[in-house]
Amino acid sequence: MESKMESTKTCYVLTGSLSPKLELNEEGARTICHAFASFLHQNGYRAFDVRTGYRQPDGAWRILVVLFRPLEEMASLMELNSIHDEFTHYILWNTLWFRWVEDLEDCSELVPGWEEWGIGN
């Protein structure tokens, strides 16, 4: 019998507001989404979700990146540093947020409305 801990997938979530210097519209946000998905794919990630969305309350385009890994295959700090480095090319540093969560549904509290954002992978 498989224990709950062994069967639980772990998600590493990064999110932040895209830089206003990028002067984004929907197409531009989608391009960044695809670029980040390509970066992850080229670096060996096979299970991820990359989305962008416009948040009305603060008038900002946001990006959400979720990496899926079983607990026994968590990324090393070096791997995560390279992802953070790539991520900071696109976002405002003071809006960067990242955390390990147990399930993708946990993102709903952290980034309201993300489910409706466009998928970039």
Query: How many helical elements?
Result: 4
Element pattern in H and E = HEHEEHEHE
CATH C-level class is: Alpha Beta
Poorly predicted runs are: 1-7
What general form does the structure show?
globular
Estimated structural class: alpha+beta
Q: Please, what is the average pLDDT?
A: 75
Question: Might you state the CATH topology name?
Answer: Alpha-Beta Plaits
Q: Could you describe the largest sheet, including whether it forms a barrel?
A: 5 strands, antiparallel
CATH superfamily: ACT domain
In which range does the helix fraction lie? 25-40%
Beta-strand percent range: 25-35%
Between the first and last Cα atoms, what is the distance in angstroms?
34 Å
Please count the beta strands (DSSP E, at least 2 residues each).
5
Number of structural domains = 1
Radius of gyration: 14 Å
Protein name: ABM domain-containing protein
Organism: Aspergillus versicolor CBS 583.65
